[in-house]
Amino acid sequence: GQQLNQSPQSMFIQEGEDVSMNCTSSSIFNTWLWYKQDPGEGPVLLIALYKAGELTSNGRLTAQFGITRKDSFLNISASIPSDVGIYFCAGQGDNSGGSNYKLTFGKGTLLTVNP
Amino acid sequence: GAVVSQHPSRVICKSGTSVKIECRSLDFQATTMFWYRQFPKQSLMLMATSNEGSKATYEQGVEKDKFLINHASLTLSTLTVTSAHPEDSSFYICSASSTAPGQPQHFGDGTRLSIL
């Protein structure tokens, strides 16, 4: 099925550094979501974005819903070791005639934080 | 926040066995639940959409007779992998969203299925 273009694929950073990752799509989405997945567990919702141009923060995390509705970014400030994991973006409700509830996932960004 | 419980977390069984995985929404009602499969180092692949009180909608290439889905109530969906074989070994994850429009999906912790 359709996938989002998520970049970068992986990042190796030092503790305390800021991180940025993004997703782009050829399709418009009504909702953008960012999830974090730890090994052997299910994804955990970090931030949900519902309006084009919306900028939302959750602690050290900030995400934006692109004005064109075709992209989103996630920033993590002052990274800490527990930020390690795989981050997935997901678009929901692509107005293409499919289910409004289905998610389209990016391929993920593997984040490694060196203490 | 919304909690989705998935059980069991790990299953190891012999080839030919049928395995049932449960997905429950603990603090909200979910008319729609989703079943995903995830291979190592890959993203989540949607297998099917489970609709309460009606038949599941399967994605292209997913065998509905192989992966039986039942969504008997607003808080429970089950996935049964019938006559499982080693190639069915994978990480299976369910998700659910509340009945309110536009609510995000919340995921269970996944089930690691290993078929010997």
Describe the structure.
The complex is a heterodimer of chains A (115) and B (116). Chain A is 0% helix and 51% strand. By secondary structure, chain A is mainly beta. In chain A, the strands form 2 sheets. In chain A, strands 2, 4, 5, 9, 10 and 11 form a 6-stranded mixed beta sheet that branches. Chain A has a 5-stranded antiparallel beta sheet with strand order 1-3-8-7-6, with no helix packed on it. Chain B is built from no helices and 11 strands. Chain B has strands at 4-7, 10-13, 19-25, 32-38, 44-51, 57-58, 67-73, 76-81, 90-97, 106-107, 111-115. By secondary structure, chain B is mainly β. In chain B, β7 and β8 form a beta hairpin. Classes of the chains: A mainly beta (115), B mainly beta (116). The A-B interface holds A 1, 3, 30-31, 33, 35, 40-45, 48, 50, 88, 92-93, 99-103, 105-108 and B 1, 4, 6, 32, 34, 42-46, 49, 57, 59-60, 91, 93, 95, 97, 101-102, 104-110, 112.
Overall morphology of chain A:
globular
Listing every helix as H and every strand as E from the N terminus to the C terminus, the arrangement of chain A reads: EEEEEEEEEEE
Major sheet of chain A: 6 strands, mixed
Strand-residue proportion of chain B: over 45%
What gap, in angstroms, lies between the N and C termini of chain B? Answer: 37 Å
First-residue to last-residue Cα separation of chain A: 38 Å
Please name the defining characteristics of this protein:
A: mainly beta, 5-stranded antiparallel β-sheet, 51% strand, globular, B: 116 residues, mainly beta, 4-stranded antiparallel β-sheet, 11 strands, 0% helix
What is the topology?
The complex is a heterodimer of chains A (115) and B (116).
Chain A: E1 5-7, E2 10-14, E3 19-24, E4 31-37, E5 44-49, E6 55-58, E7 61-65, E8 71-76, E9 85-92, E10 103-105, E11 109-114
Parallel strand pairs in A: 2-11
Antiparallel strand pairs in A: 1-3, 3-8, 4-5, 4-9, 6-7, 7-8, 9-10, 9-11
Chain B: E1 4-7, E2 10-13, E3 19-25, E4 32-38, E5 44-51, E6 57-58, E7 67-73, E8 76-81, E9 90-97, E10 106-107, E11 111-115
Parallel strand pairs in B: 2-11
Antiparallel strand pairs in B: 1-3, 3-8, 4-5, 4-9, 5-6, 7-8, 9-10, 9-11
